[in-house]
Structures are given as structure tokens and as C-alpha cells.
Amino acid sequence: MQWMAVPRSCHTIHSLEFFLMHILGSRFMGMIPDMIASVEVMLKRWRNHEGKEIDTFQEFKVLTSEVISRTAFGSSYLEGQHIFDMIMNMIDIIYRNNYRISIPFIGKIFKSSDDIESENLEKRVRESIIKMMKKREEEATSGHLDGYGNDFFGLLLKAYHDPDNSKKISVDDLIDECKTIYVAGQETTTSLLSWTVLLLAICPDWQDKVRKEVLELIGQQNPSPDRMTKLKIMSMVINESLRLYAPSNYLARKVDKEVRLGNLILPANMEIYMSTLAHHYNPEIWGEDVHLFKPERFAEGVAKATNKSIATFFPFGMGPRTCLGFNYAIIEGKIALSMILQRYRFTLSPTYVHHPVHLLTVCPKRGIQVILQPL
Ligand code: HEM
């Protein structure tokens, strides 16, 4: 799909900086009640599965899409969810056609049913976002809203209407940003939650340790920001899960101008892919037990875990293009895990088949089925 391959323009980076401020600044804390509300909706569904099997991968997909819809699109989150469903259909089409060889020119004349469906979805996503824009603009003009609203969508609309042309973003940028934020924010966090639940299901001692920490620090209350920062064992578990199952398999960069890297001369415009797996599974960094789930590696921080080579652990990327949603994802993950551990003990279901695949992120092709035991 073209919109995922297009490099970001300066305008888009400008809008992302808005979002960065939004999610890391004062408003970020305001999103926590929305995250908790979404987890509560999920846990309400789980009551029907107590003592039975549940596919947590599917559950986390729904949860993370609801969280991103609520936090990014605020009051319009139901419309946001509808757009998200269409984007997910487009992604399914990408998965299906991942290895299809397309013949130049012929592909423009003879379109497959997937090409037609994808174009149709793209058109409908665009129309829906434009409809949502119009609605917000009307609400802003009639004084029903403070500006265009304080959620991500409102900030994008503000940038779209910016009277300063050097800061203004185009409608295409705005639409691309909506799509990007869904894909960047949803698939990755689903992957993080799913693999962490798998690891805790097969390592009940760590599951007990994290639960104990949650119950000691948070009790049966809803998680609060100050308590979540104190969840040290959970942070160790999350880091180890991100090391073993980094949602993003590689980092991509393009060489700006010719540069020497060790013994190599890299020419300008060369594309470079850095494998997350190769670094996260390097025994020289992590030791011979590199394949084992050992959250205690991170007990004294990333520098100690990586033997002072902190740049070799990069689940969120690194440098100026590092993940903008880092805090958002960690907080969302901690809220969901805390609320699950407060209520359930879970074990791996006998139907589980280990089949990690790399599509947009590293995800479990056959789901992650666990059996839920209420506490
Ligand atoms: C566990 C969850 C997540 C992981 C592992 C993850 C990982 C990454 C990685 C590896 C990159 C590329 C960084 C680089 O090239 O150096 C990235 C970029 C990005 N992520 Fe995340 N991400 C996660 C969650 C999120 C969430 C929740 C959001 C938004 C709500 C988000 C928004 C973004 C954006 C906008 C970028 C592009 C930054 C840029 O190009 O300047 N991510 N993420």
C-alpha cells in the first residue's frame, strides 16, 4: 500500500511533533482513564470465558484498536473505529499479497479482486476521514468545541487550518497521519501484550512475581500513573518480552551522503536494514542463555543488561526517528497487564501452537490461547 512506503514530509513531521507533545505532554495523563475504560470493556467480555480458553491475541487486537480510537479520535471514536476496521481490511490484503509478483504496466491494466477491493477501501477511508473533518469543523464553528478539540484528530485539524503556510499540513498528510497512527499504535502494542501474556503463561513463577508486585503497589484499585512508574518487576518482564519478541523486526534507514562505517564505505542513497533479532539474540551481548526468558537481566537497567552496549537493545528504534508512542505503549501495556493480573491466573491452553510470523509486526499466526482462572 503506497501510503506506508512514502517517506514523511517536513509537514508530516511537524504534525507528528504535535502528537508527540500530545502523548508525552500534559494531555497524555488525561488519556489514562480512556485506557482503563477500554480494558474494563475487555475484562467484562472475559467474564464469559472464566475457566475456559480465550484467544488473547484476538482480544488485544480489539482492546488496542479501542484504546487508539478513544485517545486519538476522542468523542468521534466510534467513527474512528469504523475507519480503523477498513484500514485493517487493507492490511489483510497486504498480508495476502505479500509475496505476489506484480508485472510492471500489466498490473495497471489488469487488476486483481484484491487490488480493486484495496482501492475501494482506500477511497472509503478517505471519504470517512473527510466526513469526520467536516463534522469537527462545524462543531468548532458553532462553538461546541474548544478549537477543533484536544485529541490527536483535533490537533491535526488545527495544523491543517494553520494560517502559516510553512506549518500547514495538506489533507493528504492529515489522512496519512490518521492511518499511520492506527497502524503504528495498534499492531505493535497488540504484539507486546500478546507475547508478554504467552511468556507469563509458560513461566508461572514470573506471573506470580508480577501479580504480587501489582497487588502490593496497586491493590484492587485501578492503576494510577504514579503507581505504574513503580512497577519495577513488570518493567523487567516487558523489556525481556520486547527483547525476545520485538514487535518490529528491523529498523530501516537511508544513507544521506557517503559515509565510512568501520571497514565499509556506504554510498549515498543506500538503504540499510538493521535486524532487531540479530542484536537482541547476540550471545556476545546477552550471554549463552540468550534464548531464555530471564527478566532478571534487566534488574539493574538496560546498560547492565546489555553489558554497557545500550544501542543493541532497540525495540522502539533509536535516534531522531525513535518511536513517538514509547510512553503511550508502555503505559497502555502496564495498565492492561495490571488489570488482568489483579483478576486472573492464566495458563497456556493445550490448543496453542507456537507460530510467530513477521507481517507488519511479529505476531502469533495461530493466536495465543490461554485458560483463565479467576482469583
Ligand atoms: C510496543 C509498542 C511499540 C513498539 C515496539 C514500537 C516500535 C517502533 C519502532 C521500532 C519505530 C521505528 C523507530 C526508528 O526507526 O528508529 C517506531 C516508530 C513510530 N512509532 Fe512506535 N512502537 C510502539 C508503539 C507505538 C504507539 C502506541 C504509537 C502511537 C500511539 C507509535 C507511534 C510511532 C510513530 C508515529 C513512529 C514514527 C516516528 C518517526 O518516523 O519519526 N508507536 N515505533
UniProtKB/TrEMBL annotation:
GO terms for cellular component: membrane. Heme binds at C323. Keywords: Heme, Iron, Membrane, Metal-binding, Monooxygenase, Oxidoreductase, Transmembrane, Transmembrane helix. It is found in: Membrane. The keyword Methyltransferase does not apply. Its cofactor is heme. It is a single-pass membrane protein. InterPro entries: Cyt_P450, Cyt_P450_CS, Cyt_P450_E_grp-I, Cyt_P450_sf, Cytochrome_P450_Monooxygen, EF_Hand_1_Ca_BS. GO terms for molecular function: heme binding; iron ion binding; monooxygenase activity; oxidoreductase activity, acting on paired donors, with incorporation or reduction of molecular oxygen. Belongs to the cytochrome P450 family. This is Cytochrome P450 family protein. The lineage of its organism: Eukaryota, Viridiplantae, Streptophyta, Embryophyta, Tracheophyta.
